[in-house]
Amino acid sequence: MKTPLETEITHIDKAVQQLGDMVLTNVQKVMTMVKTQSTEKYDSLIESDKKIDKKAIDTEEMCTSLIARGNPVASNLRHIVSILKVSSELERIADYAKYIIRDLKKVSPDFFMQMNILVGEMLEIGTHMVQTSITAFKEDNIKKAIESAKEDDRLDTLHRSLYKRIIKITKNTENDHILEEASSMFFINRFLERIGDHSTNICEWLYYAKTGERINLN
Q: Would you say residue 204 lies in a domain?
């Protein structure tokens, strides 16, 4: 039979899992929107992001309230703290996904086509990292978390390649419109890279929850 503290921990487990599912859905929507370069559903994405923000706040408040009331110790305390941190990481991933579409709206199809393959590869890896980090956290699976975090090296390599590609395309132009599009692509590149970083952080918080050690998995 569960103690009252364990019952409340189960509730916040469910809350962060629901948050993870909401964030993954948004990231997958963004991947589809970028691949098709279709931004018509941006308003719908914004509405979903508002719900994510509220869910993250609710989850974090549940965590802080339980810490204050329940006096959790040892593994229970680490678990609650990790959920508090993961909630914040998930909310940031959703923000970056939203920002990608915001800036994609400023890029013409012709300009985007010059780097769509690199962006597509980054999206595939980033989305997979979000999915596997969330799954690892749900399953308390450290091995899966470590494997997920390793993918960040590939994402960083593509991030550098895309940066060089944008520079190469624009280095001889003085066209203000093209330079503005390049600026938007620099931001998109950065947001994709940050999604990988925050996914890795989720894996690191799981490792902390299970072992009590703070390590850098990348």
A: yes
In the structure encoding, which two tokens stand for residue 74, read together? 């040892």
- Tell me if 175 is assigned to some domain: yes
Domain containing 182 equals: 4-211
Q: Is residue 216 part of a domain?
A: no
Q: Hey, is 76 helix, strand or coil? A: helix
Best CA proximity match to 209, nearest among 116, 83, 122, 27: 83
Torsion angles phi and psi, residue 104, rounded to 5:
-60, -30
Mapped onto helix, strand or coil, the DSSP state of residue 80 is helix
Please check whether residue 217 lies inside any domain of the structure.
no
User: Please, which residues have CB within 8 angstroms of residue 178's CB and are 6 or more apart in sequence?
Assistant: 111, 170
Tell me which H or E stretch contains 204. helix 176-211
pLDDT tens digit string along 34-83? 988 888 889 999 999 999 999 999 999 999 999 999 889 999 999 999 99
Q: How many domains does the chain have?
A: 1
